[in-house]
Specification:
Length: 78
């Protein structure tokens, strides 16, 4: 799942309210779990089986983890 934002985006991701950022990332997790659940039925009943990291890649080439979904819970790194 990738949400591409341009350097001059009028609403940069990190300027969005925390609740909105969480909602965007949770939506990605929900989509991922739905897709995985089609092939792996155990994920439908136990989302804690899913582990996901969300990475930020800067235009300068740096990368960092901005959020993790682990044990059924999303946590933003700030």
């Amino acid at each position: 799942v990738q949400e591409k934002r341009e350097y001059n985006d009028p609403e940069p991701f990190f300027k969005l309210p925390r609740a909105q950022r969480e909602s965007i990332l949770q939506g990605a997790i929900d989509q991922l779990a739905e897709l995985l659940g089609q092939s792996f039925p155990e994920i439908k009943s136990n989302r804690s089986l899913v582990y996901a990291e969300f990475w930020f890649r800067s235009s300068g080439g740096g990368r960092s983890v901005i959020a993790k979904y682990e044990n059924g819970s999303l946590s933003l790194t700030e």
